Predict the structure.
Amino acid sequence: MRADLGTVVITGAAGRIGSVVRRHLRADVRRLVLVDRVPLSVESPVEQTIRLDLADLDAVAAAMAGADAVVHLAGLPDEAPMADLLDSNVLGTYHVLEAARRHRVGRVVLAGSNRVTGFYPVGQVVTPDDPVRPDGFYGVSKVAVEALGRLYADKFGLSVVCLRIGSFEDEPTEARYLATWLSPRDGVGFIRAAITAPDVHFVTAYAVSANTRRFWDTAAGAQIGYQPVDNAETYAARVPGSEATTDSAAVQGGAYASPEYSLRHAVTPPPSGVRGVGAEHAGQSTGEHGDERFRRG
């Protein structure tokens, strides 16, 4: 017998993760409210689509009316100018949490990122309790997302789960992903567990598959009731560079942690007439981790 999750709101429902989660949750809900900046088509009698911008708090609050849980996936998925990250990731998350507070939503699931700890060495297994070491401005915005979630849990009594999402791909395609990969099946499993886990005040957990080479501790995921089942090692033979020796002192964020990566994406002004990376391609219109032109950390 399937679980009844009640009414669930998904922001960034047109994105890559949102699209997968939508398909897998619709059989378990009474109502699935799909929120995005781009138009969405209804694919099931339980679905309702709402087109809005998370910058509009009143519109976000209206979308949350009657919700039992919200899964917040919308936002910029990678390095961008700091002003854009603050608008999309930080202010957008504040509006989601504030709307959830107003409507007394029972559970809020936030899309965090592994990039909040990207400067730790690959030889160290990192836990959610370790100090944050973001590998770029995007990582900083996700630190703020976690802080907002903690604030709304501590001050206003919301029940919040923040998932530090790994490299969400159908299968690992580069050597780093052998440690960081999150399969679609495990991604859905983590989100379902984050919605249904009992007695949660505030939990931060790494959402990563059961990869042999992973460098994040998964005990917090077990606390909310999910054990990942897929392992990137299954695909290692066809991943370029998989047999290369890994320097244990290299940073977990890889190329994302290089100065050039942040300078190229977040600081250097775009040419005249070209919009910023976040504004045109990746924002709330596609959802967090939504645009295939951006590789997940």
